[in-house]
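Observation: inputs received (chain + zinc ion).
Thought: call the complex predictor directly.
Action: predict_structure
Action Input:
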Amino acid sequence: MFWFEELPKFAYDWWTRLGLNYPAVWSFAVFSAFAYGACLGSFINVCIWRMPRGESVVNAPSHCTKCGAHIKWYDNLPVVSFLVLRGRCRVCREPYSPRYFIVEVLTGALFAAILVKTGLTRQEPGAIYFYCVLTLLAIGAAWIDAEWRIIPDKLNYPAMILALAGALAMPQAWGCAHWWQGGVRSLLSGMLPGAGLWIFAVLGKKLCGREVLGRGDVKFVVAIGMLSGLPGALFSVTFGSLAGSLCGLARCAVRREPAARCTIPFGPFLAAGAMVWVFAGDWLLQMAGALQRHGG
Ligand SMILES: [Zn+2]
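Observation:
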């Protein structure tokens, strides 16, 4: 899944061994995954607001962006507080952006879906870690890129560090026996597509005289590769280019603008490709393997 060779399914059935075949345990685990996701989604919301504005994501406590009032911990619970306060600040009653609620619910739902998917397909449980980090990165990068046309280094670099640390600690998720092999595979999976895109970006700028691919996008692909493997990175770039071009052309047609003048951010489409890979990647690899066997 993380590399081109087909990985053996996990040696023992961790889903059954953890008791996840019982509906009560299963429901609790899925609910917990949602809760974890919603909490981390809450943190991604802070990143989405503060990173493009150059504010610290760790030091300053949460405050209302309209009146500046500090938000008490009981008004800062993911999903729940938004519903209790009906999406308004307790002090000034100004509505919060629906983004807070959307990102929290989306992250929670994706975390729960990742647990179910890796369990049902009996994937190596370490994959859950990489998929969850990739989900957080994808949501943050997509939202910031759509709004600001940048993907901050402060988002890409920590994701790369988490990817490398995870690959060193869980090389078996990368089909490797030794920690250093996991690290090398993760690094190569990011660096190879990253180098290709970087050359494309430099040549594109020379030939077109304007930026065709941002540096943030290149680093984002490096992080995607380090988290989902080389096939995942290649799929995200292919999916992102196709989907992005189609949407760009559709927007030009609607606005009746010349194609050269309308640009759209690449990040959200790369992020969408990465999320498709999380849920359908190993199935796509199996299909490709079966086709190859038929052909050969
Ligand atoms: Zn307020």
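Thought: report the result.
Final Answer: The chain has a mean pLDDT of 90. Residues 14-295 form one domain.
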